[in-house]
Amino acid sequence: MLLLAGVAFGARDFYDHSAKTIHGEKVKLRKFESPVALVVNVASLCGSTDGDYKALQSLHEKYHSKGLTIMAFPSDTFRQEPTTDDHIYEWASKKYNVGFLMFSKVDVNGKGRFKSLPFEYLKSTLGGGPVKWNFEKFLIVGGKPVKRYDRMVNPMDIAPEIDAALAQAVIDKAEMEEALYGNRAGLLEEDDL
Predict the structure, then answer these.
(1) Residue 81: which CATH number?
(2) Residue positions annotated with a catalytic role
(3) Mind listing the pLDDT tens digit for each residue in 92-122?
(4) Among 96, 104, 127, 158, which lies 20 to 30 A Cα-Cα from 53?
C-alpha cells in the first residue's frame, strides 16, 4: 500500500482503513461495512451538538435495519471535545441513547502521527480541504465517498439521499443475484427446503 501525503492510496474504499472504537479496540472499518454509511465528526460542546446528535439517532433508528451505518468520530480538533472516550460514550449514551457506532477521539485535520487515515481518505477523495468545524458529514455508498456536507446541514436533510442510495443498493443486489443465479435469485423452491 502506497502512502502519499498521509493517504492510503492503495485503499480500494473507505472500509480498507482502520480506526479505534470508542472502547479502544483497533478494528478494520470493513467490520462495519454496509451499503450506505454516514461518517460524522462530533463534539459535545458545539452549538449544534444537541440537534445533530438527536438527528443522527433518528436517522439510525429509521435506516439502520435498511442498511445505513452511522459512524461518529469525536474530535477535539476545534477544542469542543476535551474529555476522554469513556466520558464521551457515557455522556452520549445517557443523554441521547445513541445506538450508532462511536469511535475513539481523532484529530480530523491532524498531521504526522496524529492524522486520521479515514478522514484523510474522505477529504482527499471528495476534496474541499480540511474539515472546517464539528459535524461535517460524509456520505459513503458501496464503500465510496460520494458527498460531503457542511456542518450547517442537518442530518435529517440528508434523508432523501440516504433513501435513494439504499434503494439503489437493493436494485444493485437484485441485479447481481440475477446475474449470478438467474431466475432463482433469492428464491427457494419447495425441493430446496
Answers:
(1) 3.40.30.10
(2) 46
(3) 999 999 999 999 999 999 886 667 899 999 9
(4) 127
